[in-house]
Design a protein that fits this description.
single chain; 228 residues; alpha/beta; Ribulose 1,5 Bisphosphate Carboxylase/Oxygenase; Rossmann fold; 2 domains; three-stranded parallel β-sheet; 8 helices
């Protein structure tokens, strides 16, 4: 049997997996239980209904703008034609390049966490999709990472634009902030996230779209959220 740490067992005492608790109370409980020395992420995990009446299972992949951001720092790269290099530099991106950046990517030198690409450069970066895709770095117009408005794209990512996508079983996870965030900011991010996902429900999905919701911190245990 797997041996649990004293810290885990102590946290477990405040946990009843069958009890649903209101989100406001749970945010306070999760923050209280963060005892590590680093600023843990506060994460929401939920399961959505994928079964459509037609067209096969749903695949949800989009972006949501959280009003208070997630607290996670992104190192943004911009791949653009030479005429847009100056604009990209002013945007605040950390890595900027044209053909030289493509060469770095092709050699495996990927030192960024987000990649923005102008439409003119997509033809050149497309062949590297097998490398960028599994890392979640392949630019996508639906996610706002293929655009001529480089400044806006960089600003959006640095100010709370977050990608969300479900796995094959309908599980979806997203950070709503850090332990250092006030409870009000965490609650505001939570409400925006849940309302956004509910609006993404297609007409081909019958019944409840969100089946259950849990909240946890990086090193904590998860709590099921009750009625909202």
């Amino acid at each position: 049997m797997k041996k649990r740490s004293k810290r885990y067992n102590l946290l477990k005492k405040s946990h009843n997996k069958d009890k649903k608790i209101e989100i406001k109370e749970l945010v306070e409980l999760v923050k209280k239980n963060v005892t590590t020395k680093f600023d843990e992420s506060i994460d929401i995990s939920l399961k959505i209904n994928l079964k459509q009446s037609k067209g096969g299972d749903l695949s949800l992949r989009t972006v949501v703008k959280l009003p208070n951001g997630t607290g996670k720092k992104s190192k943004i790269a911009v791949l653009c034609e030479s005429t847009k290099i100056d604009e990209a530099k002013k945007s605040g991106a950390e890595v900027i390049g044209s053909d030289d950046l493509i060469e770095k990517i092709s050699s495996g030198k990927i030192d960024f966490t987000k990649l923005i690409c102008t439409p003119a450069m997509m033809g050149k970066i497309g062949k590297h999709g097998k490398v960028l895709g599994p890392k979640g770095l392949m630019p996508n117009p639906k996610l706002g990472t293929v655009t001529n408005d480089v400044s806006k794209a960089v600003n959006d990512i640095k100010n709370g634009l977050t990608e969300i996508r479900n796995d094959k079983d309908g599980n979806l996870s997203c950070s709503i902030g850090r332990k250092s965030f006030s409870s009000d900011k965490l609650l505001e991010n939570y409400k925006v996230l849940i309302d956004f996902i509910k609006k993404e429900k297609p007409e081909t999905i019958k019944g409840e779209f969100i089946k259950n919701i849990f909240i946890t911190s990086t090193m904590g245990i998860s709590y099921r959220i009750g009625a909202k």
